Amino acid sequence: MQIPYHIEEILERLENSGYEAYIVGGCVRDNIMGLAPHDFDITTSALPCQTEQVFSDCRVIETGIKHGTVTVLYKGTSVEITTYRVDGTYSDSRRPDKVTFTKNIRDDLSRRDFTVNGIAYSPRRGITDPFGGMRDIKTGIIRCIGNADERFSEDALRILRALRFSSVLGFEIEENTANAVRRHKNDLDLVSRERVFSELTRLLCGKDVRRVLTDFSDVIAVIIPQLETTIGYDQHSKYHNSTLYEHTARAVEAAPAEPALRFAMLLHDVGKPACRSVGEDGEFHFYGHAEESAKIAEEVLRELKAPNTLRERVCDIIRHHDAPVDLSKKTIRKALSRHGFERFCDYMYAHMADDSAKAGFCLPRIETARQAVAIAEEINAETPCLTVKDLKISGRDLMEFIEPSPRMGKILSQLLSEVLEEKIANEKKALIKRAAEIVNSV
Ligand code: ATP
Ligand code: MG
Predict the structure, then answer these.
(1) Going by CATH, does the domain composed of 1-139 fall within 3.30.40.10?
(2) Could you say which DSSP state residue 144 is in?
């Protein structure tokens, strides 16, 4: 077990003051799996006020004192220390009405969600694993601690946490737990949208997202009802060899594991059923579906209270996800001028993910999008002229011909577009000459 030195010191200090102390939860799980934990949670038999006393020489913040948590600023890092507790009743399926402190580590572990999260470790006391978490990590299983139905009715967020851990860790959800997930899925309506959004984001960025989206499509449809019509939807199209929802799940997994791109792929075709038309040959067409999908995505992400910047980026990617890709340098330069380098690459990644989830003969198109990214990178490395600011002429130069006015801005925009069209070079002399022509032409 790899524990940072300062965490070991904190455990030691609590033990030397007569209390028990362990690291617990995600950091133990990740350690056993050989992953780098991102934070270390400590659990102790000391009451919050006793913890404060043990660390009276440090700054202590009473973060969640009611729930037994204090944050200690120890040697430059902040560490959460929580008193062993059992949760009281849950009247709202979300937060325990009150928590009770206990002296027994087993009781504390029993309130935790899954066996893989119910392991504690201390250098002095070794591993405490009363619910078989080590075994489930070895075999790759997400299993509720205790009775799954009870655990999900206490806190419905656990339903999504099960899916999230399954996707991120690549673990299967054990049958009893999976059945209880399905039985309780509608309780997800009780969970705050922010918490749903946060778990869904992590689920989408997991390595096994396709399996989880596919196996639990009914649960996904509870949090995003707009996806319901895509489930089982036959696209009647030569480009597709799977249903609309299966195509979606494949496209999500094929995209880089980044929230904006994964959300974009989740929703990129959600507008298809509403845009369907049938050709003479019986093939379905979905004209305008990118725009329609972007509109629905806007609604979905507003409902989920996603941050504005993410929502805007996702909708923009969706709007451009199936525009034709032209590999001429001039066209790509214009696209970069219009959308910016990052966004252009987003569109290309969306193209690649989309095409890799279609029928086999579409696969060569992935290469086209890849080449477009390579050309964009080339252009980017050449200190290109992509915005008015990059022009080798300024408003000051223009003042030789005209008074400062909105017209000046228009002239600069026209110069930029001619540079992008490769009609003139981005050189001061040529630009001044052309500016004079434009001014004199009206
Ligand atoms: P990560 O930090 O990677 O998200 P984690 O397992 O540490 O994973 P946290 O949300 O940080 O997850 O929670 C820490 C621990 O607290 C969990 O490992 C689990 O033991 C417990 N826990 C967290 N949320 C719940 C919950 N809703 N119900 C029951 N136990 C929970
Ligand atoms: Mg954690």
Answers:
(1) no
(2) B
For ligand 1, atom 7, the nearest C-alpha belongs to: 26
- The protein residue with its alpha carbon nearest to ligand 1, atom 4, reads 26
Q: Which ligand gives the minimal distance to the CA of 146?
A: 1
- Point out the ligand 1 atom lying closest to the alpha carbon of residue 155: 27
Ligand having the closest approach to the CA of 36 = 1
To test the pocket of ligand 1, the residue of 28, 95, 113, 187 to mutate (highest count of ligand atoms within 8 Å of its CB) is 113
Q: Please name the residue whose Cα sits nearest to atom 17 of ligand 1.
A: 25
**Residue 261 clears pLDDT 90, i.e. is over it:** yes
- pLDDT of res. 149: 98
Model confidence pLDDT, tens digit, residues 22-57: 999 999 999 999 999 989 999 999 999 999 999 999
Residue linked to tokens 């929703």: 267
Rounded to the nearest angstrom, the distance between the alpha carbon of 282 and the centre of ligand 2 is: 52
More confident residue, 32 or 382: 32
pLDDT for the residue 98:
80
DSSP 162-211: HHHHHHHHTPEEPHHHHHHHHHHGGGGGGS-HHHHHHHHHHHHTSTTHHH
Decide if pLDDT at 93 tops 70: no
Question: What is the rounded distance in angstroms from the CA atom of residue 158 to the CA atom of residue 51?
Answer: 29
Lowest mean pLDDT among 164-178, 256-270, 303-317, 378-392: 378-392
